[in-house]
Amino acid sequence: MDYPLQLTVNGVPVKRIVEPQVRLLDFLREDLGLTGAKEGCGTGDCGACTVLIDGDPHHSCLTLAVEAEGAAVTTVEGLVTDDRLNEVQSAFVSEGATQCGICTPGFVVMATAYLRDNPNPTDDELRMGIAGNLCRCTGYETIVTALHSVIDGKVERIEVAPEPLELVPEPEGE
Amino acid sequence: MIAGQVSKLIGSRVKRKEDPRLITGEGKYTDDVILPGMAYFAVLRSPYAHARINSIDTSAAADHPDVLGVMTGAEINDRCSEPFPLFAILPGMQYPERWPMAATKANYVGEPIAAVAASSRAAARDALDLIEVDYDPLPVVTDMETAGDADTPVIFEEMGTNLCYEASDQAGDPDRAFAEADGVVEARMEQPRLIPNPMEPRAAVAEYERSSGNATLWVTTQNPHIERMVAAKMLGMPENKLRVIAIDVGGGFGCKINTYSESIIAVVLAQEIGRPVKWAEDRTEHFVATSHGRGQAQYVQAAYKKDGTLLGMKLKIYADLGAYAQVISHVIPTLTPSLAPGVYSCRDIGWTTIGVFTNKIPYDAYRGAGRPEAAYIIERVMDLIADATGKDPVAVRRKNFIPKDSFPYETPTGMIYDSADYDAALDKALDIAGYDDLRAEQKAARKDGKLMGIGVTVTTEVCGFGPAAAMGGLGGFESATVRVDPMGKVTVLTGASPHGQGEETSFAQIVADDLGVPFEDVEIIHGDTSIVARGVGTFGSRTLVVGGTAILKANEQIKEKATRIATALLENKLEDTLDPQLVTLEDGLFSVQDMPDQYVTWADVGSEAYDGQLLPPEEQPGLEAVSFWEPPGLTFPFSAHIAVVEIDQDTGEVSLKRYVSVDDCGTVINPTLVEGQIHGGLAQGIGQALLEQAVWDDEGQLVSGSLMDYAMPFAQEFPMFELDRTVTPSPVNPLGAKGIGEMATISATPTVANAVIDALSHLGVTHVDIPMTAERIWRVLQTHGRRRRGGRS
Question: Is the ipTM of this complex over 0.85?
């Protein structure tokens, strides 16, 4: 019954024996300890578990681990390169687009792939493009703003470990 | 540090301390806890809304090769020393005992019946199917308005009624108001039940150490200390033997206040099988296992004069509590009449609140909790008066505002509003919206046969809970421990327990300014009962108001002691005695008056506090202070909101074109965090107005039981929100903060509802219930046609 699984996760080759019914989400979280992808629903409705499989976004809650055989899987943990957040992550931090943080990993993974494939969406197209990801905290406002700043090429990638604060005092009565 | 004082970080858009870990997947949520040897459990839930449980056969499940233990409801309940405790019992209230599991009778779909622990999550769920339960279905009660009738089946035989309480009261003389009135408006208004749906479903992990009898419970809670108090009581454990941990929690919105059965089951199963256990809901389970919110039927009459003055109101409010009362859920409906006067002078008001039990999952707090229902009543009443008098909704509101020079203001319902200037907020909102232009645009649109509506509200709410008297036994304080270590870095332990609000950031801003230390030198620790001094938790927009002030109070002690230590250090340095009054702390340096070059730092003071060799004889080592702070009164943020909608004549679909939100939460610590609370609050309030409702069939089955059936808003439902604020500091806490967690939700629902009804008002429509779905509006258009029939100007 057990299945020998070989794949690449965040650039690292992985070999494991898995049971065929194990979901990719559980494999990543429990076997590999990559708990970034979240289970928000388990039914493919919310997008919190989104990971990239060979570059394409997938619901890892609806994907069996064995379906990723031979694939390159990228999770939110794999978006950081050279100790810097990627552009979408950086924009999320700059715009305050994270609140509780559960939808965030899936959102940034999805948006990273979406903007790679659709670099210049209109606001309507963008909102439709991220409609597979639910957020209950932000009303999507700061998420959409963050993604627009990526589209506009205004984002500088920021270091994972936060640098000391740059003070931007708010003018009275803003 | 006092409201209005110039400071460096307070008021700044500081980036969140939480984000680096959350954006990279390093957050530590309950479901992320993975322990050596951990097993998983799943919960068998009643498929019936009301059924007698004749027998349960767990033998096949127990024989499953991966199953480690099966416990029935009776077996779990037997391990508890008492049922769920209730707080703030109302006079004359009747209620059933509630144990973690249904042992002999299930009273709602989703009530726990049995639990299975297995070596994997999948095996635990598979094994549920092997449990055989013999049920006898019983008559089901779903309608709150008839639940208390004599001919309605009674859910709890021992009570003999489904009525939890019926409370009537009045202020002033409502009959006088109605006798003096030029007219009366009335309506029946529905507040559908809503499903909170934080993006993190609930989860629990328990570990038990047999040798010591200590248990650790990781759980998705907004209030770990209350969770521990409740769970320890029920499990018959001393509180100091139960550690509750909730570090990262993924949204709550009220539904993670309650201590749920799964916390108890988790600890009992961990004891039973001798391994740590984990349970995590999926979304389908969340819909039937986690409390819902709202759920009222409101009968409203309002007496007015033809100049638009509101004279008085009579309210009858039914509240659907579901199958059980929990924590203080039964009290929530009583907030509705208390806040019903809103921002208006209303001399005479009478009310009856009727809380009933039904065969539905229990109701509890959902963002706003009792206050959205109140704001909805009064803000619909204002528009009904506008309809009846032919006046503009803005004019009617202004006519009735509590004047700004009358604060603190005691309402007829006994609330003491702390501070407000409603005209200022409304002026700002009207200005941003371009209200007069919008009305002109609406007139032109109507000429073209288009349906455009403008909704206006001015609302207030109560938050910043305590004091103790307002908390019914949960405690009205918050705690803070401030610790300065030998390196001069600051650690703050807070009893407030955030779940997305960003308190690690706002609290660090307060500490950095107050002590003059760098923001990066402040760590905020929360969500662990073994680390943090006893706390109350995060709900009712109380975190900043109560928790933030507790930190200031601890800082006062820290600064006093640190200044004494600094004085000793400076005396040693200067080889002279100093008047301690001459040593002051400014920008993080302790210096001697008129000798700015002579100073010591927090690191010097911190190091000396523990090294102790230069401490004066009367000074004890250490630099740590604990403060418990209870507010003297409640806070009342307020807002003026304007929504613009268009309605598709053919489909009835409402599209929200603009939303202006002017909110006043007193002092703002971090505008980004405040705006985040407003954005999310608006989304939930707008969702309530247009999309969301829990729907049951007559058998008590939840029809809207998944994200495919329950319409949670997507990104494309919203325009960009237009935010601004006024700042009216609260006098009841030294920060001047009022709280902002719930304000926007409370305002958004009536604002959008008013806009939709405004779009239809020229057709003679005066009220439509929420959610204003395309189908509902289409039906209204079919019955009202498209012909003008009076209505407001």
Answer: yes
